[in-house]
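Re: your question about serine-type D-Ala-D-Ala carboxypeptidase

S., sorry for the slow reply, the queue was backed up all week. Below is exactly what I fed in.
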Amino acid sequence: MNNPKKKKKRKPSLAIRTNILLFAVFLLFTALILRLGILQIVHGDTYKKEVEKTEDITVNKPVPRGLIYDRNYNLIVDNEGVNAITYTRSKTVKTTEMVEVAEKLSEYISVSDEDMEEIKERDMKDFWIILHPEEAKAKITKAEYQKESDGKLQSSDLYKLQLERITKKELASLSKQDLKTLAIFRKFNSGTYLTPEMVKNEGVTDKEMALVSENLDELPGVDTYVDWNRKYPYDSTLKSILGRTSSADTGLPKEKVDYYTSRGYSLNERIGLSNLELYYEDILHGQKGKFKTTLDKDGNVIGTESLTEGQRGKDLALTIDIEFQKKVETIIENELKANKGSGNTKYLDRAFVVAMDPKTGEILSLAGKRYYYDEEKRNYVMSDFAQGTYTTAYAMGSSVKGATILTGYQEGVISPGTVQLDAPVQIKGTPIKKSYTIMGYLNDLTALKRSSNVYMFKTALAIGGAQYTRAGQTMNVTDESFDIMRNRYSEFGLGKRTGIDLPGEQIGYKGSERIAGKLMDFSIGQYDTYTPLQLAQYVSTIANDGHRMEPHIVKKMHEPVLKKGEIGPVFKDVEPKILNKLSMKDSWIDRVQEGFRQVTQDTGGTAASFFDDRPYNPAGKTGTAQAFYDGPNWVPGTVQPDTWNLTFVSYAPYDDPEIAISVVVPWAYQSVGNQLNLKIAQKVYDAYFNYKPGQ
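Result:
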């Protein structure tokens, strides 16, 4: 039987517990409300910003390079618009998604043979793993996975094992379509995040552009636009001097990536690789456009905004007249073809002409050609070799005798009018050295006019502290005599950089033996070697009354303009620059100028038969140097055949020079002489004065 008293006692206990529970719930709700209040009121803005957090990334947009004109503003390097297809990789895109897009894109565009040939075995293995993830995973054993978990192997080690275990049969399973997709995927994968990577900009047809443009919604990251390539309206004329640019595929050279990226360049950006394009990269490159890409916290693009449109590179106007340049190149080509062929001209394969304004240093023509037998084509080919005017050096022969005479004056071993006997010279331990004929007694002017070697020998020996009196005598010269002559020669630009605004200039070879016979060879240009450009600067210095001008190939720099065919305002004028003044007296320079005039205009002058009837009245000096052939057909370790280099330096008119030239024909013949140097010079002068470049 139940006890009613006990039931009554339980009721108060239940009510108390219920009240306690309700009070606890009340406290919890109060705390929650307070907490929510604090979060919303105190920290609300902070958490709102965190939820709405975005990332802004600024991306550079390449612009076309500046144009290059000749001195008369004939366009010689242009930008040609071409269809292009690009891919921009987002931060969140997966590799498998990129492959899917590449596969779809391969349905709309063709892939070049060059791109297919660039696919390597490693590329194929990486791609096979992407296409066959389960099979690739199965190539790793459980024990190897366990080692990775234990930290004994890295994930990269497992990947290497997968690569090693892919069989040739598995690689062969990749179809032609797979490889085409891979070629496109390689382009996708080579770029950096959010930077457009060139997929194709050569041979993109209008149909391909239309197909891709119509299907961009199923090709995330892909875009179409008009790109540019360098165009050369004058074909190969001056081509080697203008230089090369990298392509969108090659981008920055590997060895210069750090240098250019530190200056804001993208990896796939095109730059100048050689000559003018390289030397004036900062001018021609332009100011890239910039646009801002906004990403959400997951890395998805939520908007883009153009910051600056950018500006294409500034334009260059050269000192060269392209029509005169063409004439000079044609002259060289014709003379090489006409003289090449016999056994006597077996090694003749090149010739150079440098023409410059001696008063300003402006290069009027920089021309060089190579004519050689191409084994693959089984035919003779002519190639542009203008850069050889400052990157190759040769023994120049008697053309340098003007510097020898002036050095003799300066060192006090001869003076204007000094007479010396031209007869064979033989010192102990040295073969007989002589002029091409015995000339008897002659003075400095006649020595230049008739090109006496002996006069130069005796002058050089005197500088070396020696006096030749009889055959067979022992002859010693001071070590410093070589330094004296080289220092004097350098005042003309011989044996040192001319300062031309082109990269890669060479200074030539300096002989190391310091004996009397070599000093004699030095005095007639048959010891040290010089470039055709150095030779032109040397004669320009004499023509310009002893002022050595810095040669330059760029005349003006212009701001770019949008309208084609118009020239923008001048950004910078390249002013003439005097590098030094000869330390010789003006009267001595006048004396050598007279000797040079006699060479070309007086009876007995070594070039008079070519120029004494020309109305432009040139002055100059011929040169013939006995040399050893070391060109492309020489096999190192074998005997170097004897050859003869032909040179000629000149300026005209002699009393008020407006052009100075050097003509260099290395390895012109072996046994029987020709006058290829003078034939070229005569035709170059005739072309210049009949045409008058820039006027």
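The CA atoms of residues 446 and 515 lie 28 Å apart. The first helix runs from residue 4 to 42.

Happy to talk it through on Thursday.
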